[in-house]
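Need tokens for this chain, all 102 residues.
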Amino acid sequence: MPMHWRRIAWFVSFAIALALALWMRTLGYGWSATIGAAVVVWVVLPFVISQLCAAFILARVHRRIHRINIDGLMEDIADDVKGLPPEEQVAVAKRRIDERFK
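Here are the structure tokens for all 102 residues:
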């Protein structure tokens, strides 16, 4: 997960924990319960947010890989580089990958 997303998750979880603490205090909960719940939310929520973001990113990557047909790309590269020296194999493979991802 990109670093700015982690910061966003941290600040969002802090804001939610603060709102929870204020709400719990208005309902008459004690300081220990309020602070305990707020700390748990503040610590646990960024992990939940990061997992959701990771799932979202992985789902997009998965769809893109299937749309590009990565298996067909590997077969095409293997056919194109047969009999070429290693340096040329790398160049041909890079060119084919660049062409497919454009």
